[in-house]
Amino acid sequence: MDIISTLGAGSGIDTKTLIDGLVAAEKSARQTPLTTKAAALDARISALGQVRSALQGIATSLETRVGNGALGLAPQSSNTGAVAIAAFGTGPTGAFVSALTVNRLAAAQQLTGPALTGADQPVGEGTLTIGFGTRTANADGSFSFAGNGGAGVDIVIDATNNTLAGLRDAINRSGAGVTAAIVAGNGQATLTLRGTEGAANGFILSAAGDPGLARFSYTPGAPAMTLVAGAVDADISIDGIAVTRGSNVIDDLVTGTRIRLLKADAAPVTISAARDGAQIGTTVADLASALSAMRSLIGDFRKGAAGSEAPGALANDATARVLDQRLAALVATPFAEANGLRLLDLGVTVSRTGEIGYDAARFARLSPTRLGDAEALLKVLAAPASATRPSRLQSIAALATPASLGLSKQKSAVTASLAREEARLATYRATLTRQYGAMERLVAASKAVGAQLDQQIKAWQNQDN
Questions:
Q1: Is 15 exposed, middle or buried (0-12, 13-18, 19+ CB in 10 A)?
Q2: Among 14, 106, 137, 353, which one is most buried in terms of CB atoms within 10 A?
């Protein structure tokens, strides 16, 4: 029989309720303070985590802005129809303004072959060898050719691909740098070949095999194919200096830029690179707003008790106080990487009540020559945490990590104490149950003896009568 269910059966006292009350009193005295402490530690750990995550989010957002080049030197062209320019690699190393004239675009060599009756007409079996180098036109209409010293590319035509289409496909699959196509019309099919831009990318074709394949040769002595355009370099001048390049895409003319030549034009095109002050101003304003919200969040966590209102999770927390102080100090901190520039110089302000704001008029007074320093300052703020760079946002956020680890260790200790207390209370309840169970059995036994004596006395009295 369950001992709990029999408690009180002998004495008439509700010993089960009595045991529950004793255990509850013990729990209130020993376990409740631990539970309260665990809840407080959880709140502090959560609050510090929110502060750290919010600061890291601000730093990441700022890093994205400074990393996408929007705050850096932005290349521009006065005539995008003739010349396009964009940042390349790490971008321009400094502001510049230059005049660029496109006298001639770079072009690729183009050839056309004889007109055949269709793409399936045989061309002859054998080998076409493509050689590369510089083609030079002669006054009498002929040309000379200087090879570049590289090995030629063999295009093999056999029974499996002996058609005009097969020749086209074989050239394209060779990876030689020559593109083949077939132009069809009026019952004819003509092979066209196009090389790569630049004078050094001219090409010749030498035929060996069936005589029919010689129709697609192009050599100084036997130019069977027809020249449509010769391979030439781009001819440009920048600030009056004559320059040639083998491509219309130029990455090495102005450091950190990619220039695309789109059209020859005698009129000079102005290319330049400058920072967008409005973009930097907007970024600084957004940063000031984010820092103000950050201090407000920390302030809510640090507030003390007021009347019936409970204190914040980080009231009297030393780490929260340091985080708040470091954020406020950022405004007036000079940054060596930005030649001593401060957020204060960019219009960021701190009011007497501690609120961080932005003064657009002050930013407008910043010299354009210092926009580069402004970008450098923002880059420093957004950079990864470093023990030697305490003013970085990530470095400030990292201050919360040791405190959070310490609080987590405390929470683990409290959790372990709660587990031990639960075990102790279980033992205490079992002990009380045994003790009161024994008492009930004694009381029941005493009552049984009393009942027997009462019956015996009554029996004796009946005999006397």
A1: buried
A2: 106
Q: Is 18 exposed, middle or buried (0-12, 13-18, 19+ CB in 10 A)?
A: middle
Rg (CA), the chain: 45
**Is residue 126 within 8 Å of 213, Cβ to Cβ?**
yes
pLDDT of residue 1: 42
Task: Give the amino acid at 213.
Answer: L
Report which secondary-structure segment, H or E, holds 416.
helix 400-464
Of 129, 122, 128, 191, nearest to 159 by C-alpha is 122
Q: Are 136 and 202 in contact (CB under 8 A)?
A: no
What is the greatest pairwise CA distance in the chain? Answer: 169
| Burial classification of residue 304, based on how many CB atoms lie within 10 Å of its CB (0-12 exposed, 13-18 middle, 19 or more buried) | exposed
Mean pLDDT by groups of 10 residues along the chain of 465 residues: 47 68 66 81 90 94 85 91 92 90 97 95 96 94 92 94 96 95 93 96 95 95 94 96 96 95 95 91 95 93 86 90 93 94 95 91 93 93 91 92 89 80 74 72 65 69 66
- Pick the closest to residue 194 from 183, 210, 185 (CA basis): 183
| Dihedral, 447, 452, 453, 459 alpha carbons, nearest 10 | 150
* Per-residue model confidence as pLDDT tens digits over 411-420: 888 788 777 8
Place of tokens 């400030």: 396
Please give the C-alpha separations between residue 177 and each of 200, 210, 275, 438, in angstroms, as whole numbers.
Answer: 12, 25, 40, 102
Q: Which of 458, 326, 346, 434 is nearest to 389 (CA)?
A: 326
Detail the DSSP E strand segments found in 173-233. Answer: 179-185, 188-194, 202-209, 226-229
C-alpha–C-alpha distance, residues 88 and 46, integer Å: 44
Residues β-bridged to residue 229: 110
Amino acid at 71: L
Residue 203 backbone phi and psi in degrees, to 5: -150, 155
Q: How far apart are CA 336 and CA 167, in angstroms?
A: 65
Contact between residue 266 and residue 82 where contact means Cβ atoms under 8 Å apart: no
DSSP 8-state symbol, 399: T
For residue 185, the cross-strand partners are: 188
Q: How far apart are CA 102 and CA 208, in angstroms?
A: 42
| Strands annotated E in 62-142 | 73-77, 83-87, 96-104, 110-116, 126-137
- Judged by phi (left if over 0) then psi (alpha if -120 to 50, else beta), residue 448 lies in alpha
Predicted TM-score (pTM) of the model is: 0.63
